[in-house]
Amino acid sequence: MIVIGAGPAGYVAAIRCAQLGMKTACIDEWRDHQGVPALGGTCLNAGCIPSKALLESSEFYARLREAAAHHGIVAGEVALDVPAMMARKDTVVHDLTEGIATLFRSNGIDWIQGHGRLLPERKVHVTLHGGDERTLAAGHVILATGSLPVAIEAAPLHADRIVDSSGALEWTSVPRRLGIIGAGVIGLELGSVWRRLGAEVTLLEAQTVFLAMADQQLTRSALVLFRKQALDIRLGALVKSTRLTDDGVVIEYQDADGMHTLAVDRLVVAVGRTPCTRGLASAEAGLLLDEGGFIHVDEHCATNLPGVYAIGDAVRGPMLAHKGSEEGIAVAERIAGQSPEVNYERIASVIYTQPEIAWVGKTEEALKQAGIDYRSGVFPFLASGRARAMHETDGMVKVLSDAATDRVLGVHILGSHASELIGQAVIAMEFDGSSEDIARTVFAHPTLSEALHEAALAVGKRALHLLKPRRS
Ligand code: FAD
Ligand code: NAD
Fold first, then answer.
1. Among residues 321, 342, 363, which one ends one of the domains?
2. Count of structural domains, the chain
3. Which ligand is nearest to the CA of 235?
4. Which of 113, 138, 173, 470 could form a disulfide with 2 if both were Cys (CB 3.0 to 4.6 A apart)?
């Protein structure tokens, strides 16, 4: 087995292949800022993990400054040491990437450090970091080369002034005015980090609808909450050009009211990611890509070439670490003769803002569009004892179920720890549960999870801690 790419899709596939008894090599070209090869791909080195480390640190700081007094804690003067915060983040990343190297050793996986290129007949040409070249051959090849940030002509990257998400995870000082192009997942998470640390943050979003992929009842509330945190989110704002000045960047953008300029000290371009597949296969190999550059695969991640599979961000579906990992496991098991399935309908999405937004299944808008008759139950965290004890009362839980069968079709959470709560909904849906199943489950008190229980009760109009609608 040869796996190209050691992000969460490729490294997990390699481990599962090795567990199943295959002799496995994993080729990866990632090097950290010191030029040292590192496993884990975007997720561990420049994505999920460093962003969550900084979200945690910045939230800690914001709480000490803003929430401590509410709890009767006098924090005194709270000061920032951004280089130390970055060093902690780097340690978290380093420990985890080293952990994968240890897992590779313990599973007997060969880590090949260099660039891989697919040739015909499941051969792979490798250019090692040192410059040496070799050609490997295998019975099966898994392509897991991930994705890269989308670049736009209107805002070419420039040193540390106009950067992509990787650059915005490395600054050792807080910009006074920060611009972000794109109010999607990355824009909101990184915008939150730098806002909490003191930057004035403006997000320019081309779409007029905020977070169009999520349930709009929740995103409308989220937009109000984020704006209260002084995240200046401007919708319908299309960036036309950027100009470097002596100490910053001037952005020209257009919205419904006409052309505007915005001066910032630093700018992040966060307008999506694109599959990393250019030059991945020789022309003779004949690997089929779609027009977006994604590797064409069937429902089991098989490419058009016998014995060659592709997984993770490089193929269709959401660009999420857990989606890639599950595909990696499924491909390894299928090659070993098992019959696994990835349930793409049950992949949770999370946006790690404060409050967090998490969901699984269909949104109310999608159900309406599909003409599916549904029932909805909503429960606000304001009515949760635990949320009040935590002083985290923003947001709600919403359960959507089929009007005829009561099967849960979607669960949407805006609230503190939504990323953890959503797992309960995923399990319920994976077992084809109904809202009544959740309503009849006993949840510990006092917990935030009780809000999921109450939202499920609300589907049947019997939530206990909600006021009855007033009769007119
Ligand atoms: P990648 O992680 O991109 O790994 C691909 C690897 O292949 C890389 O190491 C690359 O160097 C290597 N490679 C590419 N081409 C070759 C080649 N030809 N030869 C050798 N090696 C090659 N997702 C979440 O689920 N949760 C989050 O909280 C989250 N946060 C994110 C935050 C940020 C800032 C970003 C940018 C992304 C985030 N994501 C998150 C998305 C997540 O990082 C990706 O979905 C995930 O990393 C995709 O995994 P992958 O294995 O497909 O690819
Ligand atoms: P995204 O698709 O979430 O957001 C990009 C935003 O940029 C969109 O709202 C889009 O309308 C806007 N946009 C595009 N072109 C624009 C332009 N010219 N001017 C203004 N706005 C423009 O993409 P992202 O935030 O870059 O994230 C990339 C991927 O990484 C996502 O698919 C996401 O799944 C993944 N990711 C996941 C997490 C997480 O799971 N918590 C965190 C970060 C990234």
1. 342
2. 3
3. 2
4. 138
